[in-house]
Amino acid sequence: MVEVFDIVLQDDFDLAVNNGDFETGESTLRHHQCLLLAEPGNLKMTPAMGVGVRSFMNDDTEAEELKKAIQMNFEADGMTIQKLEVTGRDNINIEATY
Length: 98
Description:
By secondary structure, this protein is an alpha+beta fold. It has one domain (5-97): Nuclear Transport Factor 2, Chain: A, CATH 3.10.450. It has 3 helices and 6 strands, in the order ββββαααββ. A two-stranded antiparallel sheet has the order 1-4. A two-stranded antiparallel ribbon has the order 2-3. The longest helix is centred in the C-terminal third of the chain and has 14 residues, at 63-76. It starts with a strand and ends with a strand.
């Protein structure tokens, strides 16, 4: 497992600033969150990226389709998925590292 360091985002996804500087820290879990929440088209440099989990939750999409979207996005971002379980619409368990 490789530790990934990036600019730290707060819980509201605002930049974390300490003494006038951006905070940095391990960011793999935050990358998971950002990929899950981003809708395709939200990321200017990679418009196809983004699972759009909110759209899946508001749709009658099967759990397998959501699982496939998660797997495609995480792998495209360079992650290796150790565990991916999607049960129903509101239970997602992911273990993935860079």
